[in-house]
Design a protein that fits this description.
Strand content: under 5%
Strand order of the largest sheet: 2-3-4-1-5
Distance between the termini: 36 Å
Largest sheet: 5 strands, parallel
Structural class: mainly alpha
Shape: globular
Number of strands: 8
Helix content: 55-70%
Mean pLDDT: 82
Length: 921
């Protein structure tokens, strides 16, 4: 066991007055080094309050631990720069075998993309891979000046947050007061100024002598109690304290304070280090400062800089800021220009900060460098830096064609960075290519997107309608799709929209080669048409398959896209669950291969729905549970609907307490303001009906129905709320209203034409009908389900039919029906339905077989998934990466599973489990 060394407060004067903070940090460090749960702690304070010293002291106390450190404030830092430094630190502490094992999965893919300059091509995978590396290798991560890290490294920290509490990892970050860090809800240590007594203690620690009350008061007032200012005051050259009236013979006197008179060489070295924004290589500092190599080491020491393994940096970022700010504008530009020459061999994006510091680009030679640097930044994902660079180009230096390309790149970078100037930029681009229809349409689409994001959808529609009118025949379908993508959000345009879309579907939808966005929009359109009954299930399903084009759309978009997702959802609503699952299996595999938690969450969340309807309740529960676990880190919009599905699954499996816990967790977090809330409410109603609380269930269903009406959907394939409400109303004795709702649902389901919703609606109608009609309706419901892909509802219809036959005295006919219901329920692992079918079978004089939850059957769905992968031979690391869990969480699942199975490890467990179908499950 690693234990922290003694906290070195004796050698850290700036820690005077920080005993409480030191104690908190030591306790957190000890917990992690003892193998306990991790935590994140934020040290917050104004500049000079000792945040960095506090973090460095923890570092000194963590000898033997796996540690990574980073400084957030580095001018001109590369995208992922801080995260890259952290990863480099950690990998450097591993031997070749350990590093190879760590880089075998998501972390290795991220590292390869990062070092190959392709990080922007798969940003989600890089973010996840780097976060996984830190969570599974580091014991201590420290980031100073977290408020100033590059945006992509911040994304890595945000992805890391949920790993902290299920990994032995302590994350310490320091930030300025008023900044926002990515660790919301964590412990914060607010560092304020020192008291006069603490200033006196600091003087005594620094000088070895006590100051008198007057000197202490003067120094406290002059420094406002800021520790760094106190230390700097004690180290300044003579002549600065006289104005304060300090005793020339006291401990603050010049002869008792170290001080070096500045020299020209020292000043040049300090200026060069500030411009390079260290840690900078010693040779670069020497070259930029024009100091001989033989003199630079001495100059660095005299300049008060830190020479650490051949790199130079300031001891505190505020000192670097002061030196940089003291340079004149001309001197600053001269040094940055010189730095560009010295760094000419570095990747273009390294030059970004120096280029920006030059101000407006007025040289044609600089234009080439600025454009290539901006392109690199955009590809790497740092769109904000790309926008700043492109905005610095003087347009008068550009030819018309070149100006269009620059303006489009600038506008896209501005839009991605959230700049309102993007619209003006795209307007200028469109004006340049007025006579080029294809390019004009391209610029107009980007401008329309700006209008739409600004809440001016009608303006966007009008702009794109104009482009449709101006487009030549060959370009007209592309222009029409561009218009349709926006017009669908504007209610007055919906009639015209349907006509245009129908024309395009007949005359020829643009191919992916003509318009890459067209296939994705077709997937969205398939869902929109599946959400309303009038288009029919066959039409929606065929549109979805046309959009998916096999796996081509998924390959184009990757699992992070949404066009394929909407198409898969449309297949699900159209009752083509097996085809939906095939697409979703491919999406999960793609997300796992790329390490994309975004793609993984949205594919797993959706796959849980068709898996549930296919009667694979174990798979549905595991998908939903794992999507929720990963969704707490990213893509939270899917949480309500996924938890709604999970609550239904737990309910039908007979674990009502587990269903209640899932619903309570969602209630605690609140809704997300989308259709996902509607599906959560429906899941809650199913649970409440099973609990025998029909009035509360009805209230949930009415709220869900209102959300569906707002979304302009009416399809019971998405939300069979009328059937569920009819069941609740029958239980409440309100038969008249139940009859109306059941009839409405049946009419809508038959109009849409998918067998599953028809079977559900016929069962609801049977609940409101007389005895004779009830049996006929239930037989027709069973027939519909035999054609469809909704096995849970099939079991319900069979059980109700057996009950109705028994009530009518036809017990001989009832028994085989109930045995079939019980067998299907067992296959689905739907314990609640198994119990209901068994009870009816016993009442009909049948003798059901016994079932018991023991061994493998006692495992939760997530445990079955994890232990199944272990039985397939995957290591804990491979399981963790495949399921987007931490290794600690995998260990917990395996330990629980082995206990329930009564085995000692994976070898014994594998003998009890059939091989799983692979890591996508």
């Amino acid at each position: 066991m690693t234990t922290p060394t003694d906290f070195p407060t004796a050698v850290a004067p700036s820690l005077v007055g920080r005993a409480t903070e030191v104690e908190a940090l030591m306790a957190a460090l000890s917990a992690v080094l003892d193998g306990g749960p991790g935590s994140a702690i934020v040290a917050r304070g104004a500049a000079g309050m000792g945040k960095s010293a506090l973090l460095r002291s923890v570092l000194d106390a963590s000898e033997g631990a796996a540690v990574a450190t980073a400084m957030g404030r580095t001018r001109g830092e590369l995208p992922f720069g801080v995260a890259r430094g952290v990863a480099t630190d950690l990998l450097g502490q591993l031997d070749a075998g350990e590093a190879s094992a760590v880089l075998a999965g998501a972390a290795g893919r991220a590292w390869e993309q990062l070092n190959g300059g392709r990080a922007g091509a798969d940003r989600a995978g890089v973010v996840y891979g780097l976060a996984w590396l830190v969570a599974n290798v580091a014991e201590l991560l420290m980031v100073d000046d977290v408020h100033a890290i590059d945006p992509l490294s911040r994304s890595v920290l945000e992805a890391l947050v949920p790993w902290v509490h299920d990994s032995p990892l302590l994350v310490l970050v320091a930030e300025r007061t008023g900044a926002s860090h990515p660790f919301a809800g964590t412990e914060t240590l607010d560092l304020g100024p020192l008291s006069p007594a603490e200033v006196a203690a600091l003087v005594r620690r620094r000088t070895g002598q006590a100051s008198d009350a007057q000197e202490t008061e003067l120094l406290w007032r002059a420094t406002a109690g800021v520790p760094l200012r106190v230390v700097r005051s004690l180290d300044r050259p003579a002549g600065r304290l006289g104005a304060w009236g300090a005793d020339p013979e006291g401990p603050l006197s010049a002869d008792r304070r170290p001080g070096l008179q500045p020299r020209d060489t020292v000043a040049r070295v300090r200026a060069a280090t500030a411009v390079l924004s260290g840690p900078a290589p010693l040779a670069q500092v020497a070259a930029l400062a024009a100091v001989d190599d033989a003199d630079v080491v001495t100059a660095v020491a005299e300049a008060g800089l830190i020479d650490d393994a051949g790199t130079v940096r300031f001891g505190h970022p505020t000192e670097e800021e002061d030196v940089y700010d003291d340079l004149s504008d001309d001197e600053r530009r001269r040094l940055h220009r010189r730095a560009l020459q010295l760094l000419a061999g570095e990747p273009a994006s390294v030059l970004a900060g120096h280029l920006l510091a030059l101000g407006p680009v007025t040289s044609t030679d600089d234009v080439v460098l600025v454009r290539s640097t901006a392109a690199t930044c955009a590809t790497s994902g740092d769109v904000m830096m790309a926008a700043h660079l492109l905005a610095a180009i003087d347009d008068s230096l550009l030819a018309a064609a070149e100006a269009y390309d620059v303006l489009m790149a600038r506008g896209r970078a501005q839009a991605a960075a959230g700049h309102t100037e993007a619209a003006i930029t795209f307007e200028r681009a469109a004006a340049i290519v007025e006579e080029d229809p294809a390019r004009r349409l391209q610029a107009s689409e980007e401008l329309a997107a700006c209008h739409f994001r600004a809440g001016a959808a009608p303006a966007a529609v009008a702009l794109l309608r104009e482009q449709v009118d101006l487009a030549p025949a060959a370009l007209r379908p592309v222009a029409q799709v561009a218009w349709a993508r926006v017009a669908r959000f504007v209610l007055p345009e919906r009639a015209a929209l349907a006509q245009v879309v129908d024309e395009l579907l007949v005359t020829g939808w643009p191919s992916a080669e003509e318009d890459p966005a067209s296939a994705g929009f077709l997937g969205e359109l398939a869902f929109e048409r599946a959400a309303v009954v009038r288009f029919g299930a066959d039409h929606a399903g065929e549109l979805a398959l046309r959009a998916l084009d096999g796996d081509r759309l998924l390959e184009m978009e990757t699992a992070d896209g949404m066009g394929w997702w909407w198409a898969a959802y449309a297949l699900h609503l159209a009752g083509r669950n097996n085809e939906a699952v095939q697409t979703l299996d491919a999406a999960v595999a793609d997300a796992q291969a790329r390490g994309s938690v975004v793609g993984y969450v949205q594919a797993m969340a959706l796959r849980s729905g068709p898996a549930f309807h296919l009667g694979r309740l174990d798979d549905a529960a595991a998908d939903a549970e794992l999507a929720v676990a990963a969704g707490r880190r990213e893509h939270r919009v899917f949480l309500p609907s996924t938890r709604g599905t999970l609550a239904q699954v737990h309910t039908w499996m007979g674990d009502l307490d587990a269903a209640a816990a899932v619903l309570a967790a969602q209630e605690a977090e609140g809704g997300v303001g989308s259709g996902a809330d509607m599906l959560h409410l429906y899941g809650r109603s199913v649970h409440l009906l099973a609990r025998g609380r029909p009035a509360e269930a009805l209230a949930c269903l009415e709220a869900a129905a209102e959300q569906q009406r707002v979304g302009r959907g009416d399809n019971p394939a998405m939300l069979p709320w009328r059937s569920a409400a009819a069941e609740a109303l029958v239980a409440l004795g309100e038969m008249e209203r139940a009859v109306v709702l059941a009839a409405e649902e049946l009419a809508l389901a038959e109009q849409f034409g998918a067998p599953g919703p028809i079977g559900i609606a016929r069962r609801a109608a049977a609940l409101t009908a007389g005895a004779d009609e009830r049996i006929d309706l239930l037989r027709s419901a069973v027939d519909a389900h035999e054609l469809g892909e909704r096995r849970v509802e099939h079991v319900q219809a069979l059980t109700d039919l057996g009950r109705a036959l028994r009530a009518a005295g036809a017990v001989t006919d009832a028994r085989p029906v109930l045995r079939e219901a019980m067998g299907l329920a067992d296959e689905c692992r739907a314990g609640l339905l198994t119990a209901a079918a068994r009870a009816e079978l016993v009442a009909a004089g049948g003798r059901p077989r016994r079932t018991a939850l023991r061994g493998v059957d006692a495992l939760t769905p997530a445990e079955r998934r994890v232990v199944g992968l272990a039985a397939d031979g995957l290591t804990n690391r491979e399981i963790a990466e495949s399921l987007f869990l931490s290794r600690k969480a995998v260990e917990w699942h395996l330990t629980s599973s082995y206990r329930k199975l009564g085995v000692a490890g994976r070898q014994e467990a594998s003998a009890l489990l059939r091989p799983t179908s692979g890591t996508s499950r």
